[in-house]
Amino acid sequence: MTQTPAFDKPKVELHVHLDGAIKPETILYYGRKRGIPLPANTAEELQNIIGVDEPLTLPEFLAKFDYYMPAIAGCREAVKRIAYEFVEMKAKEGVVYVEVRYSPHLLANSKVDPIPWNQAEGDLTPDEVVALVSQGLQEGERDFGVKVRSILCCMRHQPNWSLEVVELCKKYQQLTVVAIDLAGDETIEGSSLFEGHVKAYEEALKSGIHRTVHAGEASSVEVVREAVDKLKTERLGHGYHTLEDEALYNRLRQENMHFEVCPWSSYLTGAWKPETEHAVVRFRKDQANYSLNTDDPLIFKSTLDTDYQMTKRDMGFTDEEFKRLNINAAKSSFLPEGEKMELLDLLYKAYGIPSSASAGSTKNV
């Protein structure tokens, strides 16, 4: 029996990882084609091995990628295909605009050092990865009617990659790329930033590249403070631990900081303890600027509706709040102003909201 969607109107998603949103069937196909061993022979078995049902630590979650990334990374056909299929997936979820993020370096090769698999098609550069993903996204946008942009990730454990990432952001600004991100295990090295990341974000700011940062998911509020004050981020990936410092939280609310909230993810990664109030409940009460997102639906065995069902069923969210948070997501997107206003007009019409009441404002509602 098909479950009734928690919110059946157009949605905006700002925080989802391409390499965490791959169809199991596609992983199996390229594993077989490239002769790369996988821990299962059927899509269902593979989904159950990769997928998570109970909370685990962030490092344990990140280790899940090792099961399947070798089947995809470094393969031109696979990289383009997962981007195309991603757009199809989001169209089925009722998403009208999405920003998808990924590490060009990890999709070029799933390990830091080259590994000896099928070298004929396993030798992509990060630059080629961005070109292929952009092609796949553009073809998906054409075929499925979802507007898609991409965000390139720096990785906390590889600061030497970050300057190349920002240069790729600059190069591909006209081909889907709208921003830079910092992802990975935020608990490493006491969560302090490496010089390479700071330099990359300084260059991004100077070059007009938008900026978001994973911060305050699994580590303390100090990581949020670094993201805001050192990296000059415009949005926070997760950001739950911001609430540990009321002064900082109030400051960020006044500055209209956008929190990219991933409720189901936060449960399964242990970023949120169910016996406590979820940060998103506080965000809702305070009318803060935030969105709902899937993060890594392959690993969490979820769709965007999972997050909407969770907040509606367990936290009392209403259609009016869903409308508000999606309008704020559109306003906090990294689209140019003209395209942002077109997206907002689409939402206002679908939600039955007079556009004249809000269209001129980029402030959250």
Summarize the structure.
This protein is α/β, with parallel strands linked by helices and 365 residues long.
Helix/strand layout:
Layout: E1 11-17, H1 24-34, H2 43-50, H3 58-63, H4 65-72, H5 76-92, E2 95-102, H6 104-108, H7 126-144, E3 147-155, H8 162-171, E4 177-183, H9 195-207, E5 210-215, H10 221-229, E6 235-238, H11 246-254, E7 258-261, H12 263-268, H13 279-285, E8 289-292, H14 297-300, H15 304-315, H16 319-331, H17 337-351
Helix pairs in contact: 1-2, 1-4, 5-7, 8-9, 16-17
Report on the structure:
With 365 residues, the protein is of the alpha/beta class. It has 17 helices and eight strands. An eight-stranded parallel beta sheet has the order 1-2-3-4-5-6-7-8. It is globular. It starts with 10 loop residues before the first strand and ends in a 14-residue tail after the last helix. The model is unreliable at 110-120 (pLDDT under 50).
Radius of gyration: 19 Å
N- to C-terminal distance: 36 Å
Return residue spans where pLDDT drops below 50 for at least 5 consecutive residues.
110-120
Tell the overall outline: globular
Strand segment count: 8
The H/E string reads EHHHHHEHHEHEHEHEHEHHEHHHH
The main pleated sheet reads as: 8 strands, parallel
Number of helices: 17
Q: What number is the mean pLDDT?
A: 92
Helix content: 40-55%
Residues in β-strands, percent? 5-15%
Structural class: alpha/beta
Q: What is the strand arrangement across the widest sheet?
A: 1-2-3-4-5-6-7-8
